[in-house]
Design goal:
InterPro entries: NAD(P)-bd_dom_sf, Sc_DH/Rdtase_CS, SDR_fam. The protein has about 260 residues and is α/β, with parallel strands linked by helices. About 45% of the residues lie in helices and about 15% in strands.
């Protein structure tokens, strides 16, 4: 637990399930004020808000599409109205779909780039604008992926979006470091989220994925949430402009494990 996160206001996009939900719960345990952004209502949302409050935090759910400027601005204004501050903004919302690159439609390309990259730009821009105006030495955290580093056939739009997140993060970190605003990314590997549930339910596919992870297991959302809490805390006060890979070693060329090659 990080004492300095108590009472801080954290906005998390795409926070109603998966990694976003785990982060919302973790910041609740840190006794933070959590703005839970969601796109579509779900049965779990009310329970998530209640769980955050039960753990000692405060929470508000705010609907919004991260690709729309007015919705992102509403996230900032909602946090300011409810809690009087924005200290941490986490661009977590993301989408993916598998398509052979030569068959990828412009519509699918634009959707993934809009959510994953443009959404992160809008969130970062609005958060930084607010922090500058209020003179807050805040933190922006972008959700990247091992695929900002590892090419991923059939997911060229997703990999391109995460490559963009890398340079978005590094450029903003350099630009706003003099103002005490830190900008970092998290690069998860294979994580046991609802979007991956069907894939990992197939024993052969799961075995194949695990074979690419040196540490030997598929990660859980709470393990990514722990990284986010650290990056947002004062324990990471000298850290900016990095992608912190939480991937069980997936980016370390596991095919060479054991001295092969």
């Amino acid at each position: 637990m990080y004492k300095d996160l108590e009472g801080k206001t954290v906005i998390i996009t795409g926070a109603s399930s998966g990694i976003g939900k785990a982060m919302a719960l973790r910041f609740g345990q840190e006794k933070a004020n959590v703005i839970v952004n969601y796109l579509s209502p779900s049965e779990e949302l009310d329970q998530l808000i209640e769980d955050i409050k039960q753990s000692g935090g405060k929470a508000e759910a705010v609907q919004g599409d991260v690709t729309k400027e007015e919705d992102v601005k509403k996230l900032i204004s909602s946090a300011d109205e409810a809690f009087g501050s924005v200290d941490v903004f986490i661009n977590n919302a993301g989408v993916e779909n598998e398509v052979h690159s030569e068959e990828l439609s412009l519509e699918d390309w634009n959707k993934v780039i809009s959510v994953n990259l443009t959404g992160a730009f809008l969130g970062s821009r609005e958060a930084i604008h607010y922090m500058l105006e209020k003179k807050i030495k805040g933190s922006v955290i972008n959700m990247s992926s091992v695929h900002e580093k590892i090419p991923w056939p059939h997911f060229v739009h997703y990999a391109a979006s995460k490559g963009g997140i890398k340079m978005l993060t590094e450029t903003l970190a350099l630009e706003f470091a003099p103002h005490g605003i830190r900008v970092n990314s998290i690069g998860p590997g294979a994580i046991n989220t609802p979007i991956n549930a069907k894939k990992f339910a197939d024993p052969k596919i799961k075995e194949d994925v695990v074979s690419m992870i040196p540490i030997g297991y598929i990660g859980e959302p709470h393990e990514i949430a722990a990284v986010a809490a650290w990056l947002a805390s004062s324990e990471a006060s000298y850290v900016t402009g990095i992608t912190l890979f939480a991937d069980g070693g997936m980016t370390k060329y596991p095919s060479f494990q054991g001295g092969r090659g």
